[in-house]
């Protein structure tokens, strides 16, 4: 029965193509594309700036698709919708909420690709909204404190600058925002931050990433703001107060040539491999389309366009909304009939074909870089490898012809470990795992590989094939070694310094202490990392507490000769310096204390 289901599923695509070809009235005929292809981009800055930012994309597409001249048009909300309505554009790149509006009103295609944003050199495919207040406003800590507060925002149509926050408040029990408390600043989002810091408003709504960008540009001290309702998303490079939503989609207008749409999508997906061109755009490239149902659900809950009116549902509406599902049922029915007629004579051929197509589809679908499929046989002969294996110095034919198997590439010092791990995974699971090891590059040198692998088993649990995606992490490994060396060298220098050294964060919790520090101050418990300085020294004089606050404000405080009375009554003399240390973004991360006991020298001076 499972075989029949797999065969039925595999015939879905050809049957669907056949059905659509027989029902041309359901699919509008494409309008013949002109040599010039126009892409409308939503502009929330000056049009000239937007055109300048996206000009590299215009040039990249023109080069990637011969015979077509691509032109970017930077348009605001009304102008972009007017251009779509008049069919003056072929493609549209806009925010998810605006895309859903255009989809409902003008029949845009499903998303072809989703933009990958670039935040401080980290690629992200999602964004969110941020709710900020001044850090000194102790009366504004949580969402429940926002009742009756004045709120600044850029525009009500802004997804990350208004609607995400409005939805979060609605989910928290605020059915609607009070009109008299809302203050529209207009673009850019920076004006919202200015209004909050100046005290013009109590709270501000901005798009995620803005606060961090302003901090990195030294236009904002992070200590001046508090993030309200901060969410915890591991690995996210910016703070958010809301749920996360997918980045901007690119979609085609109904008249766009389907073949052109496929070529544009392919060119944009390949842009991720062209790091220089993607960097020129200020993005990480494009990826496969994201699921925008979360955005649609949010717009429905807020009852904003295109879901801002209640309509009577007719049979025609039901057909319009669920036509795809009805056609899918029809396709499934055709598949069942076709399989009953063909199963007896072509079961074997179809089964082999479907397994190959399924393998290829799964590998390509999961592969961000070099994709491979191995047979579970000695040496791991390769049954499939993606063409971009040339970055490892090989051609696909080197493997598919049988001239090379995968085990022969693995470094001799790593081979036994890799084989043992794979054998254990095959015997006991899990069926998805990751390994790091070295392989021989086609040019003769060794490179480090991060191999993410998943196993395909039959119904009896036997492993039929091994699929994997391989990433070259040689540079990362080199950086890790250099970082470890730097840490060791720094530790060696500190430990052999004449001064006792202690490093604290902004909360005065210990980050690092030298052995001499523990000995100098008679600290018996060496495990003080993470503890507060005042917990270790509860009777610390107010003088030192004042010094700490001055240093955390940026001063360097020191004393050449300072008496230090110990608990046993002994008086030591110290020379010390306390100075701030800084994060990579220029903000103060904490303080460092250097202390040297100079009692012997002081005694000599006093005896002279």
Largest beta sheet, briefly?
Answer: 7 strands, mixed
The CATH architecture assignment of the largest domain turns out to be: 3-Layer(aba) Sandwich
**Global structural class:** alpha+beta
Global geometry: globular
Within the CATH hierarchy, at the fold level, what is the topology of the largest domain? D-Maltodextrin-Binding Protein, domain 2
How far apart are the termini?
A: 102 Å
Characterization of the model:
The chain contains 19 helices and 24 strands. By secondary structure, the protein is an alpha+beta fold. It folds into 5 domains: 1-27 and 313-347, no CATH class; 31-122 and 247-302, D-Maltodextrin-Binding Protein, domain 2, CATH 3.40.190.10; 126-245, 3-Layer(aba) Sandwich (D-Maltodextrin-Binding Protein, domain 2); 367-477, 2-Layer Sandwich (Beta-Lactamase); 497-607, Beta-Lactamase, CATH 3.30.450. Strands 1, 2, 3, 4, 5, 13 and 14 form a 7-stranded mixed sheet that branches. A 5-stranded mixed sheet has the order 9-8-10-7-11. A 5-stranded antiparallel sheet has the order 16-15-19-18-17, with helices on both faces. Helix 6 (159-171) links the parallel strand 8 and strand 9 (182-184). Helix 6 crosses helix 11 (293-302). The relative contact order is 0.08.
